[in-house]
Design goal:
With 66 residues, this protein is of the alpha+beta class. The chain has a domain of 35 residues. Helix content is 65%, strand content 12%. β1 and β2 form a beta hairpin. The N and C termini lie far apart (32 Å). It comes from Leclercia adecarboxylata.
């Protein structure tokens, strides 16, 4: 899937990688401002990214508890 914006096309695979990377950073105690991360994204990209970010945060939390 590709997400479009005025500045070009972003691969969902790229955004998924970024979401998982930022989720790992968050769980290792790094303070992240998702508003700053998503500030230049159009609304569709922003919502998709935040959904994946939340998924990875929860998934990785569950994985660490096991």
């Amino acid at each position: 899937m590709q997400l479009g914006s005025e500045k070009g096309v972003v691969s969902s695979r790229d955004l998924d990688f970024l979401a998982s990377s930022f989720a790992r950073m968050h769980l290792h105690g790094r303070h992240l401002c998702t508003d700053a991360i998503t500030g230049n994204m159009d609304e569709d990209c922003r919502l998709w990214f935040l959904d994946r970010y939340d998924f990875y945060v929860e998934h990785l939390k569950d994985k660490e508890l096991q």
